[in-house]
Specification:
The complex is a heterodimer of chains A (145) and B (134). Chain A is mainly alpha-helical. Chain A contains six helices and no strands. Helix content of chain A is 77%, strand content 0%. In chain B, helix 2 packs parallel to helix 3. Classes of the chains: A mainly alpha (145), B alpha/beta (134). Chain A: Keywords: Cytokinin signaling pathway, Phosphoprotein, Two-component regulatory system.
């Protein structure tokens, strides 16, 4: 079971979904907060769902308010950076670049990819946390090789 | 961060986290906790000002730049105008030279780029002379 947890975690790093920041968060877990990373991840997905919804509404209006879109994405990027959500962060950066140059099509295309990466990360992390809880706290504190 | 994480509980340092992002609030709060630094969290610059107006004071303030109502630059200036001498460290994802310069000139003592980690926080504490790294 612990080996399975380790393999899932390794693949998240190997495939670029997570970066070193996630390990930093795991190292903050202690006896008082053994599920700290899962709690932060839950916060992240709640917050990012709200941001995705706001961005979707803004895009559906048709008139692209690039300033507003950039503000939303700045928040999204900030959260993604703090949790180590590497692929999502990259898409946020790209989206902001398209906002900067006023490229609506680029924004739409990138947003579609961002939602895909976000959904994949969510699914993989849910699986990881579920298995990690079953396996016990030991495995989550180890750095991937 | 490999190696020992310093425990500064005995120093009785206090800190204020100023950030509108819930994920960052949670992470920064926990980072400070891990170092043994008691800390409060507020969501924007105006709340940071208000908490000081209510009489609270902190050794260290971790100040985000981009926040609604009152941003980090405005809040830092306001706190300095109020005579608050706490050490203020700007913590932001923005790292363009001009933006950092403006933030520093508002009255920061130090600056770190997000994401904040134990290493970066220890670096802040060392730069601000709260902790001597060995």
């Amino acid at each position: 079971m612990q080996r399975q947890v380790a393999l899932i975690k390794q693949s998240l790093f190997d495939q670029g979904y997570l970066d070193e920041q996630f390990v930093e968060l795991e190292e903050l877990q202690d006896d008082a907060n053994p599920n700290f990373v899962e709690e932060v991840a839950t916060l992240y997905f709640k917050d990012s769902a709200r941001l995705i919804s706001n961005i979707e509404q803004a895009l559906e209006r048709g008139s692209f308010d690039f300033n507003r879109l950039d503000n939303y994405m700045h928040q999204f990027k900030g959260s993604s950076t703090s949790i180590g959500a590497s692929k999502v962060k990259t898409e946020c950066t790209m989206f902001r670049e398209y906002c900067r140059v006023g490229n609506a099509e680029g924004c739409l295309r990138t947003f579609k990819q961002l939602k895909k990466e976000h959904a994949t990360l969510r699914k993989k992390l849910e699986q990881y946390f579920q298995l990690a809880r079953q396996a016990g706290p030991k495995e989550t504190a180890r750095r991937p090789k | 961060m490999a190696g020992e994480v310093p425990n500064l509980e005995a120093s009785k340092l206090t800190a204020l986290v100023v950030d509108d992002n819930f994920v960052n609030q949670s992470v920064h709060h926990k980072l400070l906790d891990r170092l043994g630094i008691k800390n409060d969290v507020v969501s924007n610059g105006q709340e940071a000002v208000d908490v000081h107006c209510s009489g609270r004071n902190y050794d260290l303030i971790l100040m985000d730049m981009d926040m609604p109502i009152m941003n980090g630059i405005q809040a830092t200036r306001r706190l300095r105008e109020m005579g608050i001498e706490s050490k203020i460290a700007g913590v932001t994802t923005r790292a363009e030279e001009e933006e950092v310069k403006e933030f520093m000139e508002a009255g920061l003592n130090d600056f770190q780029e997000k994401p904040l980690t134990i290493s970066k926080l220890v670096s802040i504490l060392h730069n601000l002379e709260f902790y001597v790294q060995t």
